[in-house]
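Predict the 3D structure for this chain.
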Amino acid sequence: MAVFIAQNLAPIMFAALVVFLLLGYPVAFALAANGLLFFALAVELAPYAPQTITLSWPLLQALPDRIFGTMANEVLLAIPFFTFMGLILERSGMAEDLLDTIGQLFGAVRGGLAYAVVFVGALLAATTGVVAASVISMGLISLPIMLRYGYDRRLASGVIAASGTLAQIIPPSLVLIVMADQLGRSVGDMYEGAFLPGIILAGLYAGYVLLMTIIFPKSAPGLPEEAIGFREPDGARGVWQLGVLVLFSALVGYYVMTQTETRAGADFVILTICIGTVVALVCAVMNRLLGAKRLAISAALAVVFVGAQYWLRRNGYQGWGLFLEMIAAAAIYALAVGLVERFSGLRLMSRMAEQVTFVMVPPLLLIFLVLGTIFIGLATPTEGGAMGALGSLILAALKRRLDNNPARFNFTIVRQATETTAKLSAFVLFILVGARVFSLTFYGVNGHVWVEHLLTSLPGGQTGFLVFINVLIFLLAFFLDFFELAFIIIPLIAVPAEKLGIDLIWLGVMLGVNMQTSFMHPPFGFALFYLRSVAPRDSYVDKVTGRRMEPVTTGQIYYGAIPFVVIQCVMVALVILFPGMVMHYKSTGTQIDPKAVEQKLQQLQLPGLDSPGGLPGIPGLPSFDPTQPPKIQ
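Done. Predicted structure below.
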């Protein structure tokens, strides 16, 4: 019996961990206790299986080094930075302004509020990276409005919970940081690869809303006319002007990409966002603050910046030239807007366009500050997170100043955000420390070899491996959250995946999309719990209409989540079928032409090696012919 246990200690250890977790013990302590318990058992059973058990009591001295090595990992510093940034943005009221403005933008369109929730969910995901902050913010702000105007409770709760989980796959996601660390890959590459799948997933959510509005029009009605604001004196809304701005920004972004020979779709989206942000901000400031002077100032800015970028390009300062091109494009667009408004009487910067600009520009600037600097290689993810945390404080302070509302930003908000950040960071690190203790024992009993043989021997090769792993993650997500899955499962499957020739960035993004289901699975999905905590439990009187509203039941929240879990599974299949949406990250790296390297090596001359007298200055050193093999005397 002892021999059997010793030879099968790895699967027994893994099964014991599952039992600990099902009994409800905290994950960090279950991992550590399981590791220490089986360490002692393995040392005692080592004589029965010396080929598979390589543990001894002195090996416990390696534990402090492993723990301190975890604490010294600079990549994990990005977790508290991004958490703090998201909490400051959420508590300063920017999410509320975004939801209100984007809801007004879609106006009377069927499902407009649901589209606004998806759009703002993607935007908050790109600025916060925290699922709880996104779900709670949108649940508090959007859910009462959606119920007020007759949205189906299942659709409303499902779209809010699902849009909040976009913070897990759209950079700067916390799970992508952990995933990259566990897979031993660059966080920047993981962000680059996950950007397009995250945007496509948000598009699938919007497509489901569109389908519901076609099949069941009453499930997502548009806003009534009296609820739509930001109109012109003649009653027009001027929404089409934003389309012109986006088209112009996309054209400039395409031009910049051709100049830099960049072909990545994620970079094109980021460039378009950055250019649109700069253009919209310049136009809004010119229109609102400068009035009649904006024509002259726009023309002067266009001439100055076009001339400056031309001079910089001529002198080899490529990066600064591209930066000034964006400023020049903004000035040219502002000049064109001013000229059209001056001579045709047509207003191209409506109240709606101005409102969208002043509400959306701050988070978009933050996206460029964080993701833009990471994607172009100017900053590491940790440095980008630090800049994002500082940028969120500055934006919150400016928001308080512009709105003249001390409740927007004060010391209490900063203290609460700091405390919450410390709690979440400690939670993550405790799980990671427990995982280190567990892995020391698991690797010592050849558990990694057992997992590798198990996964590489699956029928179907790569396809069988991907199907098995995704089904396993989907089932485990019913009971474990994404941090636990990332720390326990991902290190075990990294080596078999690499041996099967699977790109680990692609695998990480695929599993990141799959792990989103851990937030949406009834009955243990955390996003559903977050929404349940802010959704009305009892009937209440609406403040605007005065009508008595029915509560949102837990069953409605669970039922509404099921279609979005299916959509997430469809997205996993799309990532498998179309790996190019992730693998484009390789196109941004440095490309090496082997023929050019070979030609350079052939032209390389080392002084003295080919001279007949040997090396100069070293008497007695014989000459040699590099084309002949050396002679051994």
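The longest helix spans residues 411-444.
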